[in-house]
Amino acid sequence: MVLDGVSTEIGNIENRVDQAAAQCITQLVQATVAAWTKHVKKPEK
User: This protein's superkingdom (predicted)?
Assistant: First the structure.
């Protein structure tokens, strides 16, 4: 059926969006941790 193909394609698109979002979130977290670590280390001896 055409509907099955469409829902499969929508699922594929959603998977790609999820992966892209996960990569963005991962990069954001890494950047935040790096900045925070750098900021926290300064006052220490």
Answer: Bacteria
